[in-house]
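So, can you check?
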Amino acid sequence: MKKLYVKDLKNHYDEEINFSGVVDNIRNLQYVIFMILRDNTGKVQVTIEKEGNDELVKKVEEITLESTVKINGKLIESPKVKLGGMEIIPNNIEITSLSMSELPIDIKDKDNTLRETRLDYRFLDLRREDNQLLFTCESYIQRMMREYWYNNGYTEIHTPKISAKAAESGAETFKLDYFGKEATLSQSPQFYKQMAMSSGFDKVFEIGPVFRAENSHTSYHATEIWMVDVEISWIESYLDVMEEEENWIRYFMTNLKEKYGEKIKEQFGVEVSDTSKPFPRITFEDAKKICKEVYNYQAVKEDDLERGEEELICKYAKEKYDSDFVFITNFPYSARSFYVMKDEAGVTQTYDLLFKGVEITSGAQREHRYDILKKQIAEKGIDPKDLDFYLEFFKYGVPPHGGFGVGLGRIMMRIFEIDNIREATFIYRGPTRLNP
C-alpha cells in the first residue's frame, strides 16, 4: 500500500505529499486554522492560513470531528509545533467521509460515558489512543508467544470448535442442533491437545476461541474467550511444564517491555512487570496457611483458592519475592479434572499461575495410562462410555505429557491493570451482550 503514516512523515520533509487521516481536533482562530489528523501511528498538524485561502477555509468549516479527509500539501519541519515538530501546509482538502456532528459517546474521556454505552458503540470506543495501544500490544504479545514456540520446535494446531462432548465434566456448554444430533460449542481444546500427543506431535499450541455458557456477571468472566493452550510430550513431571511456561512468559513479557514499555507507562500509568527473577512456587497447602496465619483470611472453600486468597498470595509474593507472578502447586483432586495425574500419595501434579491477584493459568501433568485414567473417570462419577472417543486415544501408547491453558483476556487485564475483562476484549460477549 502507498498510504503514508504519521510515523513515516519525518522522511518526507519539504516534499509534496498526500496524507489521509481522521480529524481529531480543529482550532479555528482569527487568522489561522489548526486541524489535527490522526492515524493509528500518531497525529500531525495541518495549518491553514486564512488569508488567501478562502476555498480551504470554507472546506474546513464543513468538516466535523471524526470525519476522514485526504490532504494534498507540503510537509515542512517546524520545531515550534509541539506535535512532532512538523506541519502540513495544504493545497487541497478532500472530505472522504463526513461524521455526524455529535458522537453518542465521549471518545476523548471514557469516564464521561457509561461502560455499557461505550460497549454499544465499541467501534467508536476503540478509536481511543489507549485502546489502539492495548490491541496493538495484544497483537505483538501473540506474535512473541508464537515466536517462542516456533523457535522451540512447537507445532500450531487448530482444534474443532463444534464437539460432541464437553471437555470438562459438569461444565456449562452452549448446545446446538447438528443435523439432528446434539452438539456443543467447545469450551476447551483439552481432549484434542491430548489427541495430538497420542498422534506423535511432541509439542503443540493453539490460540483460539472457547465458549463458556456460565451465567456469570463478574469482572473476570465472558462467554466467548480466547485461550492460549500448550501441550508437551516426554515430560518428567509437571515441574517441566511450569518451567516451560515461565520461560515462555519471560520471553514475551521482556519483548513487550522493550518495545512498548514506555508507551504503556504513558497511556496506562503501568510498568510492565519485570520477569527476570524466578517465579516463586508455593504449595496449595502452604498458600492456605499463609492466607490464614499471615493475613487472617477465613476461607469458605477448602479444596480451591478463593479470589480473596489469590489476591493475598500475590501480595505475599510481591512483598517477599518482588514478583508479580506466583505458582500455586498440588491442588486437591476434588478441585481438578479426572485427567490430571496423581502421585503415589494421591497428590495431584497440578498448578495454577497467579498474576497480580488473578489466576491466569491452570496446568498439570496429565494421566496418560489407560487403566488409571479409566479408573479416575469412574471416581469422578462419569460414565466411561460417555468418554469412549477420548479413552480411545490412550489404548495404543501415549507418552507422558502435560500442558496448560491461559486466558488471553486475563493476561491483558493484568499487564495493563484493567479492572474489567469487558475493557480488555476487542468485542465482549457475556450473558446479556450479543451486540455489536
